[in-house]
Design goal:
Order of helices and strands: HHHHHHH
Number of helices: 7
Oligomer: single chain
Shape: flat
Distance between the termini: 39 Å
Strand content: under 5%
Number of strands: 0
Structural class: mainly alpha
């Protein structure tokens, strides 16, 4: 079955994790980095549920805010990497005869980081994984 049909057959009410597992079974899905997509799904949930929470405002100081910003930056980076994969899938489905925009693909994670954290880049070191630092 073509990948487009596999995508169309995923139920609309299926959660993202289940949808990714269904698509991973398809030949095109098996060529993608499913670990990166899984990480992006988890960090998307972290951003949605904890990303803006630094605790009690009265106890928030510069160091606490910067520590949280490091976690948020790492989560945004992980999400951008997953978004990049999905964007490549979409490009392949919409423009099957055109080569992927390699320059854009390669620069996308840094463009997201610059757009979201450019003003803080000098203060925020990059961590390996948001999940490793929050477990």
């Amino acid at each position: 079955m073509p990948f487009e049909e596999a995508v169309a057959q995923v139920p609309a009410d299926k959660l993202l994790g289940g949808a990714l597992h269904s698509l991973a079974a398809h030949a095109m899905g098996r060529t993608m980095d499913m670990d990166t997509l899984h990480e992006a799904r988890q960090t998307r949930n972290w951003i949605a549920h904890e990303g803006a929470s630094i605790g009690a405002v009265c106890s928030a100081d510069r160091d606490l805010i910067l520590q949280h910003a490091v976690k948020l930056r790492t989560a945004v980076t992980d999400l951008a990497l997953g978004d990049n994969i999905i964007s490549q899938w979409c490009h392949g489905l919409e423009e099957p005869h055109d080569p992927p925009p390699t320059d854009w693909i390669n620069s996308y994670p840094d463009a997201v980081d610059t757009g979201g954290f450019g003003h803080l880049r000098g203060l925020l070191p990059v961590q390996a994984s948001i999940l490793a630092s929050s477990e």
